[in-house]
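Just wondering, can you check both lines?
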Amino acid sequence: MNLNLLSRSERDLHERALQAAHLFAHAERSLLATIDEVDHSSFFRKLGFPSCYAYCREALKLSENVAGVLINIVRKSKKVPELKARVLEGKITISNAGRISSIITPENKHEWLKKAEELPKAKLEKEIAKVYPRAAVRERVSHISEKRLKLEMGVEEEVMALFRRAQDIQSSREKKAVSLEETLKAALETYLEKHDPLEKAKRQKKTEEKKTEEKETDDIPAHILHAVHRRDQAQCRGENPDGSRCPQRRWLEVHHVKARKDGGPHTLENLLTLCGFHHRQVHTLPGQGKKGVPMH
C-alpha cells in the first residue's frame, strides 16, 4: 500500500479510518466481555427481562443478529474458554467466532480455533459446510419492507419432500398452484388449530353451538373418503393415451361412478380419485364413470 499516492487530506482521512476501525474492534471485544458478566450475574431478571437475549435487544438496543452472536459465543465459551480468550486477544473476529460457536467442542477446538484465526469469512463458511451442512445456513429473519420479512433456513431433503407434498395437497384444495409461502401459512394454521389451547377452546364452543342446529348433509363420510385416499394413494386414477396412469397429485376430486342423482352410494367401490381434467372428461364423454374414460 503506497500512501505516497494520497494527498495530505486523503492520508489524514485514511488515518482516521484506521483509528475508527481499531476502536470498533476494541468496542466489540469489550461488549463481549461485558455481556459475559451480565449473563453470569443475571441481574437483568430484576429489571424484568426474562433472558439475557431480551436484555440485549430491549435495554441495549442490539440487533437480533448481534445479540444472538454475542450470547452464543458467551455460552459456548463456558465449555470452550479458549474461544472467548482468542476473541479478547484479537486473534479471532467476533463474526468468525460466531460462525464456529455452534460446532466447536472441547474435542475439536484446536482445529476450529486455528481455522477461525486464519481463514476469511467465505473460506471458513465453506469448511463448516463440508463437515456440518446444517450449520452452513444460519437461520435468520429480516425485514425487506414494512410488513414483509425474509426467512432464511436450511432443511433436510426429507423435510423438503414433506413441504412439496403439502404444497401438492394445498394446491388441490384451492384448485390453483400455491406458493411455498401459502403452503407454510396453511400448514401452520392447521397445526395451531390442532394444538393451540386457545384454538381448541374456540373449536369446542363452535361444536357445542352446532349441536343445536345440526343439519343433514350429503358429504362423503370421512372414513370412506380416507379409504379412497389410501386405495388411490392420493393420485389420479385416469389413464393417459399411452396407457400409463395419470401422475397428477394436485387438483384432485372424488368422482361417483354411479352419479348421486341416479342413486349412486357413498361407497369405496363407487368412488374414484380423478384430477380436474379427467373428471371433466368423464362427464363429457358418452357413458359416465369407468366406461367413459379408461381408468388405471
Observations:
- The radius of gyration is 31 Å.
- Residues 157-207 form one domain.
